[in-house]
Amino acid sequence: MARIEVEKIVKRYSDVEGVGGARSARPALDTVSLDIADGETIAIVGSSGCGKSTLLKIVAGLEQPDEGVVRFDGEDVTAVRPQARGVGMVFQDYALYPSMKGKGNLAYYFQVHGRTEEEARARAQETADRMGIGFEQLLDQSTDTLSGGQQQRVAIARCIVREPRLFLMDEPICNLDAKLRESTRVEIRKLLRKFGISTLYVTHDQQEAVFMGDRIAVMRGGRIEQIGTFDELYYSPANLFVATFIGSPPMTVLPAIASGGLLTVAGAEWPAPVPVPDGPVRIGIRPESWFTGRGDGALMTVSHIERIPTERAAFVHGQVDGVPVVVAAPLNQPDTAELRIMPDMGRVYVFAADGEQCLHTPGPLDLF
Amino acid sequence: MTAIAVDNLVKEFGDKRAVDGVGFTTGESELLVLVGPSGCGKTTTLRMLAGLEPVSSGTIRFGDREVTDVRPRDRSIAMVFQDYAILPHLTVFENIAYGLRSRRTPRAVVKDKVPEAARTFRIDHLLDRKPRQLSGGERQRVALSRSMVRDADLYLYDEPLSNLDAQLRYSAREDILTLHRRKKRPTIYVTHDQSEAMALGDRIAVMNAGRIQQIGTGEELYERPVNRFVAFFIGTPSINLFTMELKNVDGDMVASGCGLDLRLPESIAHRIRAYAGRKIELGVRPEHLHVPRMAPFDVTEDNTIHGVVTVIEPSATGSTVYLSTPEEAGAEPQDFTATFKVRMPASYLDQEVPLGIDLEKVHLFDAETGDSLLHGPQGKG
Amino acid sequence: MLFPRVGRTHPALRIAWWATVAFLVLGITLHLFPFYFMLITSFKSGNEVLSQTPTWWPHDPTVAGWKLVFDIVEGNSAAGQLMSEPLWVYMWNSVQITFWTLLLGIPITAFAAYANSKLQRGRMARYSFLFFIGTLMMPAALTLIPSYLLTRNWPFALPQAPSVGGTELPTFGIWNTHWAVVLPMVFNAFNYLLFKGFFDTIPDSVIQAARVDGGSEFNIFRRIVLPMSVPVFAVTIWTSFSGAWDQFLWPLVVMQDDAKMPASVMIYQLQEKFIQAGSASDAEAAVQSQQLQEILGAGMSWNGLMVLGILQSIPVFVAFIVCREYLLRGIKLRGLK
Predict the structure, then answer these.
(1) Mean pLDDT for chain B?
(2) How far, in Å, CA of C220 to CA of C214, rounded?
(3) φ, ψ for residue A5, nearest 5 deg
């Protein structure tokens, strides 16, 4: 257990391999700072190549930062080898040692640290009890006979067994079935709460991030765009990128012209939620913030209606003035070719016409 | 008219039956989704349809033509693979054109069709690139374009979205539907993600252990699952299952177990009287658990469950709450899930709360066979 | 996969299938024939061996050739005098050379490949890889003289520093010892390629996981990587073994004493005597007919040579059988040569 501080980390790869093999001048991590409170879980979310895994490896010591400092409990560990940092890491491909059984995987830490076999066995037993029913059988199997979900459990147990100061999880469940993912993430979340170990959890799935993280860090292009709770990111995004990244289906962004307190969107005129300087702007509306069937709405051509009985809802997909729009509707929304839609102006986000600057966010939902 | 008819398809690998008597038919322009956990035989079924895998027994018919033993290139199918199967040494243009060229399509037609398909999927500016210069989403659209230029009798998709970032999946789904609507040909789509199945499928076939468990529209599967597996697989968060015993108490049917005694309403009770004394599993959808004050029915002792809140997951429209039955309830603590249309404050973490179960909407399954006691395979009841 | 798995009843496919089978059978036969001929020749009598139309099986089976060879191995009787030492001396030389080549060569090559695959990164990794692989492009004939000089003046190429006239360099005379044969074989670029190809398939995450667990780099190699790499070790051990056992040219260059020669060289030289007899100039022919006289006088003929050939190949066979299980897996893994 520890308080982790990551301060102004910069990481450049001299030789960028990857898309097109092109050398990019942009650093993989660009002045990233992050604090993890003791026992807190921070979920880092971003699309592939945003630097989230690199950040994790720097905290683990598997990569050296070019600039910046990593501190565990105030102690500078930037130059400390991964072997001596005492972190536990779970990898996307589980990274179990293939030549060992489940047991051997758990015991490896104790063997290389010169602990006794009894201690290793006792701790493995203890961990198996914590991991729940049916876990002990997995330990006696060779790892290549285990299913993905089982391998994942062994990988997590390998981490827990030595009581790390810090948990690092690199997309640990993204190789699992959708259904298995659902139950595994609950299991991981409960384990994290039970042990109270500080955790960095990397994922590309914003829903998973919302579920896992006490706070969520949204990354893009080697920078952290915003850190905060779900409510902060959802209702008060720092910029257009965060606004569209968090929430599914994503927010609709429509171009609008502001003049005299009115916003003109695709022929419809709506009162601006806040005073906006005259000129072109963009407005963002989340699927659930649309009213349908109002006379003064914008005309939406419907392409299809996605009905999701499991969520008692339907999503109407279509276009307003050539811009794709998604509107949440009740499950029994009738099939029509066109729809008049109007946003709940109190829930509208306003962005600058160019750039990603946020001019107005609705802030936390106030139901009453 | 029936476009694709699959009858009693079996595939054995050694002495293991990967596919065990799968049969279905599709309509002329239907999108049928095969969904199931990994290892359920859905991909093997798809590969047999494509002719990539010989069948052990059973028949496959495309319209009037039996194709069970016809080699893949003579079947007229277009397939999108999970890893997109893009040829790395060819440009995007050549990749899209490959299916046409190998069928000796006139050059003029290729020149015409390829850019058009590329435009549909917004990759017309990338035609001269090599695949390694493309992002995952772009590669996926190359694979779709390749299907688009073909006029196949059957379109197949093998988990095409599973390698994409979450945010890209929404637009990719739209692209797949665009293709399907243009072609209006039978399409079989394989996925392990039930929400993807719900979003795409005209009908959905839920597979498990090599067999189709149930075929129907998303709503049918959700409202009237024929067995425990379908009920559990469809819907997220999953249905809560409680192992209980049915008792006949003074003419009322009572399900008891897990520290609960639930008096089932007459609409359900009259159909299951014969099961008194048997072990059953009671399924409750997370959305049918209600905060007593907000429940659309009277919450009494007969329909209340207590739980300790372990995790609260916020979402835009409410919250999903993970709970555990309290320890002292006389049984092993059991986890269950509830979804609310309101946001639950974090202060409820680790608190014990009572929730009302909407007993009109529960599902009952035989504890041994897993078959539904309410909905038969033919959709009775 | 060469053939689609569905629709094999299609006529074109059927014809193609049988054509492929016929072609493979022909290939296998052509490959096995020399072995067959070697075996039957060893059981022929001296006359039959030399008869103009070769016979396909021994008309008059005899073990004379085999008996003779045991004399050569022991080094006694007239036949034993064909070589200056008993054959077992040469065999023992071969064993020693092969042993040290494997013992030093496999770990060094494996470490080099592992370091390049998992420890080096970026441009340095690529350059060092190219450097080592570059040695594959050098024809053996080109390196023969430099290597020869190196073994004479180990570890330098010349006995004196050329610019500082007359300064003697401290050189070790490994020339004319087994080390002169072993040391140049220690790093094997082809094995390096095999190792590197295999190590590249091991996910980095496994090694990173072990690092986070606290394993030292060597411990990770020994405990995690080595057990995964059994197939590739089987492949490299076998190719190294047969290479070291059967080598000819290099020992001939650096060894002076017959007593230190490996068996492969000596058997080859004995064979040469047969082949060259009568095919040279008058003066040489006299000497050679003299040699041939000696051989034939000892009752030796091709049948005996075939026995020697068989003896020479037996260890390679045994090594193959030992490694076979892993070897086949290894071939499936990477595709050999």
Answers:
(1) 89
(2) 9
(3) -120, 130
Question: Which residues of chain B does C17 touch, with a Cβ-Cβ cutoff of 8 Å?
Answer: none
Looking at chain A, the whole-number percentage of residues with pLDDT higher than 70 is 95
User: Which residue in chain C is spatially nearest to A61 when comparing CA positions?
Assistant: C212
Please give the radius of gyration of chain B, using alpha carbons only, rounded to the nearest integer. 25
- pLDDT band for C2, please (50, 70, 90 cuts): low
For testing the chain C interface, which of B70, B71, B102 should be mutated: the one with the most C CBs within 10 Å?
A: B71
Segment B228-251 shows an average pLDDT of: 91
Contact flag A93-C205 (C-beta cutoff 8 Å): yes
CA-CA distances (angstroms) from residue A10 to A4, A75, A228, B327? 17, 19, 22, 49
Interchain contact, C13 vs B71, CB within 8 Å? yes
Query: Which pLDDT band holds residue C300 (cuts at 50, 70, 90)?
Result: low
The number of helix segments (H) and strand segments (E) in chain C equals 17, 0
Distance from CA of C112 to the nearest CA of B (A): 30
CA distance B218 to A120: 50
A20 vs B contacts (CB less than 8 Å): 132-133
Instruction: State the residue for tokens 């003064």.
Output: A296
Nearest CA in chain B to A310: B235
Report which secondary-structure segment, H or E, holds A336.
none
Interchain CB distance below 8 Å, B166 and A309: no
For B189, C105, C326, the CA distances from C199, given in Å and listed in that order, are 37, 17, 16
Q: Give chain A positions within 8 Å (CB) of C206.
A: 95-98
Confidence of residue A37 (pLDDT cuts 50, 70, 90): very high
- The verdict on A292 and A220 lying in the same domain is no
CATH domain B240-366 topology: OB fold (Dihydrolipoamide Acetyltransferase, E2P) (2.40.50)
Query: Nearest 5°: phi and psi at A339?
Result: -150, 140
Q: A19 contacts in B (CB within 8 Å)?
A: 132-135
pLDDT in tens, B16-74: 899 999 999 999 999 999 999 988 999 999 999 999 989 999 999 998 899 998 888 88
**Beta carbons of A179 and B174 less than 8 Å apart:** no
H-assigned helices in chain B = 42-50, 92-101, 107-120, 136-148, 166-183, 194-200, 218-223, 228-233, 266-269
> Based on the number of CB atoms within 10 Å of its own CB, is A190 exposed (0-12), middle (13-18) or buried (19 or more)?
middle
What integer pLDDT is reported at residue B48 of this predicted model?
93
Domains of chain C and any CATH numbers:
64-336 (1.10.3720.10)
For residues A137 and A285, membership in a common domain is answered with: no
A48-100 residue pLDDT tens? 888 999 999 999 999 999 999 999 998 999 999 998 888 999 998 889 998 88
Distance of CA B361 to the CA centre of its chain: 21
Q: Are residues A221 and A254 in the same domain?
A: no
A264, A210: one domain: no
